[in-house]
Amino acid sequence: MPDKEREPKSFAPKVPVQLNPPKDDPITVEELSKCDGTDPSRPTLVAIKGIVFDVSKNPAYGPSGQYHVFAGKDPSRALASSSLKAEDCRSDWYDLEEKEKTVLSEWYTFFSKRYNIVGKVQGATNC
User: All domains of the chain, ordered by start, with CATH?
Assistant: First the structure.
């Protein structure tokens, strides 16, 4: 059965989203950190497993949003463990248990259905 047929309906956005073709532009960790929603001249970006998503249109990632802790980072470990702690917003996830890796993959799918992929974290080894 194709993957799309097996995906839970919960991953589908309530309102259809028209996404641009994914880009694979290299984005440095330094550049990513500047895209944390505090500078209105820059997009708000979140990376998952080294893939960078533009979440600018969602105020939840902005300076006063509940998910601002993820903005400008690759919070793969935090997403996998359902943590909102800043110290858990790290890109290393390869040593997680299978259950957490599954949760992280579900988050990746969730983001990929809603936000444009604008690049890859330069040097990321965990994509």
Answer: 3-13+20-121 (3.10.120.10)
pTM of the full structure? 0.89
Q: Are 112 and 11 in contact (CB under 8 A)?
A: no
Residue with tokens 């990376």: 47
Query: DSSP states of 6-42 as a string?
Result: HS-GGGS-SS---PPPP---EE-HHHHHH-SSS-TTS
Tens of pLDDT, residue by residue over 47-95, are 999 999 999 999 999 999 999 999 999 999 999 999 999 999 999 998 9
Length of the chain: 127
